[in-house]
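ok trying again, last paste got cut off:
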Amino acid sequence: MVRLRYLTPSILAVCVVSIIPFVSAYDFTESDFTIPNWIKNNAGWWADDQIDDSSFVIGLQWLISNDIITLPTTEQGVGDGENVIPSWVKNSAGWWADDEIHDVTFVAAIRYLIGEGIIIIEQEVEEVIGQVEEAEETSGCTFKGLPVPCPDVKEIAEISDFQMKVNSNDCFYCVAWGYVGEKFHIQIETFDEIGMRHIDGVTITAKIVSKDGELRHNFGTVTTEEGIYNGHIIIPSMDWYAENILSVTGEYDGVEKIIEKEFNVFRGKSGGGGITVSGASDCANVPPVSVKDDHPRPQAIAFSPNGLKMFVTSNTDSGDSIDHYDLTGPYCIATGTFVNGTTIETEEATPTGMAFSPDGKRMFIAGKHGDEVNQYNMDVPFTPSDATHVFAFAISDDQEDNPEGIAFNTQGTKMYITGASGDRVNEYDLVTPFEVSSASFAFSLDVSSQEAKPTDITFNNQGTKMFIVGSGGKEVNEYKLATPFVISSASHEYAFSVSAQETNPRGIAFDGSGKKMFIIGFAGKDVNVYQLTTPFTVSSATFVS
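nice, full thing came through this time. structure:
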């Protein structure tokens, strides 16, 4: 049980509930109620329409009647026959599930449902009393006043339906992509009919098929333990390249449910499941490649995981765009073909940083005009011309009012922003992977003693090294991270100067092997290539001239 620790509602909570008279002044204390923390899952599913209103209300009635949820004394309403749940109650459930409001606000919402007669507790109690009396006559076994099976009597399952989740956001290692030679994780959870508790006994079969229906792996029948199954498969070869489907079938008491999850497979090399997964071909060993015709003021550079697509952000008098190039081989920047440019000036007039999710279906643009991170979703991976703007995450001025670079950890649960004003790296936690709408500030790392004007940031595959390029020192600074992707554990290792090639470096990228580094800048308006004899170790870098 989780007991309430805080009684003062957050600003958000006050805004939500101020229109409801009985919520604005709490007449109960922290000892008056308990709410199990796991109920947040159900509140979140209800808010996301994964379970309907009736199921959620019935579940609350059962939990309250059985003393799993305890509430302050609340007068029972009679209802108006319509039992319409106000939208603010559902919104409150979602915010409570995301820890954006306190327990006390959610309790107030439940009390409102009771007071309006939408949740009927007294009726439930009368029914339970009747069940108790009948059970005592037949079995004589009760617990907390409720009928229970006697020790020598086999328990009979009373549920006639179930719920199932596959690779939900609760699974840290479950992502929508995989790499050849590495693990692809699956997690299956089974719940009772109202989604309130995990159950075993569901017959589950799982398999992976291609998008054309070809069987690629059969997990067979799997078994849950306390309602959860965790497993994985090593992706065997490039035969799995591109789109695949994880198909899970669950059957319980004659009820069958099927859930299918799409995921993409990329060419890769073992290395911790990093974002970039392909090494550069020999054709990447080229002198500086000019981009001045397309990019008078180039800002950032990025590649697709297989190195066959290159993207450059720029600011021009005619517009601000993301330019897309197709390459003839992995990271072969000299033979790139311009595909198109996607204008984004409606959302950001001065784009400075750029990042993609590993599956290429999300693009993120940082900019210093709006001081925001703009998220775009794409149905066609790594195709900015297909992008749809979905959200703008505002960066607070006290964190950074001149954002330049952006990066994510492998799982998409952390976002990093560099800026020229704050001379630091800001770390944000994301509740939902690669969804900036769920981001919240976590930590700020001062890098001013190494770089006064950091312009871009990236990491090695394992998240044990961080690299910051800047126009102040005209260097690439390498940091060692004692804890992967946790910048508070960073220690400075080395500063590699690029001033001989570029006096205003703006963007940085590595190939998947960590043996090629790419720097793009304002001054030369070109992409410079560096060869590293030791992967992701800039002290071993030499300029390819």
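cool. Residues 289-543 form a domain with the Methylamine Dehydrogenase; Chain H fold (CATH 2.130.10.10). The CA atoms of residues 53 and 462 lie 43 Å apart.
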